[in-house]
Amino acid sequence: MPETAFSLDTLFASLFDTISGAMPAPAAFLCCLQASLLLGAGIAAAYMFRSRYTKSFVVTLALLPAIVQMVIMLVNGNLGAGVAVMGAFSLVRFRSVPGSAREIGSLFLAMAVGLATGMGYIGLAVLFTLILTAVGLLYTVTRFGENKRCEKELKVTIPESLDYSGIFDDLFETYTARAELRSVRTTQMGSLYQLHYRIVLKEAAREKELLDAIRCRNGNLDILCGRVPANAVEEL
Questions:
Q1: CA 17, 18, 22 angle in degrees (round to 5)?
Q2: Which helix (H) or strand (E) holds 177?
Q3: Tens of pLDDT along the chain (236 residues)?
Q4: Whole-prediction pTM value?
Q5: Do strands 176-187 and 223-227 pair parallel, antiparallel, or not at all (unpaired)?
C-alpha cells in the first residue's frame, strides 16, 4: 500500500515540485517538451484513425501541446505576461471553415495536454491522453452514436409544367417514414425546378424502387440521392 500511494502521488505531482533542485531548468523544460511532442503525435495518430484529414491539420494537432506548454511556462506566475498573451491572442481571427465535432474535440484534448505538461504534470498528461484516446477509438470502432435511421438527401429536377406541391406525396408515403421539402430553386433560365428533400427511408433496400418511381414521374430528368452532409445540423 505505501508503494502504491507513493506512485500515485508521483504520478499526479508536478515535475517542477518533485525534482526541484535535482534537475536544472533547461533539462526540465526539455523533458516537458519531449512529452508534449510525443503526446501530440499520439493524439494526431488517434485522430487520423477512420477520419478524413489534411496534413496541415494533423501537423498542427501534433504541435499544439508543445505550443500551449510554452505559453503556460512563460505566463506561469507572471501576471503581466499573462495579460500580454491574452491581448495577443485576442487579435487572432480564425477565418477557415468551421471544423467538425471530432476536430474540435481533438484540439481541446491537445490544449489540455499542453496545459498539463506546461505545469509539469507529465504523468497526469500521459494518463489523460491514454484514457481519452482509448475511449475515443472505442467509440469510433463501435456503433455508438450512429444514426440508425436511413436518412437521405434527395434532389429532384422537374419541368416547369408540373406543380411541385405534393407531386411525390404518394411515393413518399409508400417508401419513406418521413419526407420534408427543404427548398425549391429554378434552373435552366426558369424552365426547370430543382426540389430539395430530406427523407427517411422505411427500408434502405427499396431506395432504387423509389428513384425509379420518381423517374417515371419527372420525365427522367436528373435525380440526386445521397447521404446528408455531416455539417447539416438541422434535425429532420
A1: 100
A2: strand 176-187
A3: 444 444 556 655 666 655 544 444 778 888 888 999 999 999 999 999 888 888 888 998 999 899 888 888 877 766 666 666 666 566 555 545 556 778 888 888 988 898 888 888 888 889 999 999 999 888 888 877 776 678 889 999 999 888 888 899 999 999 999 999 999 999 888 889 999 999 999 888 899 999 999 999 998 999 999 887 755 544 44
A4: 0.65
A5: unpaired
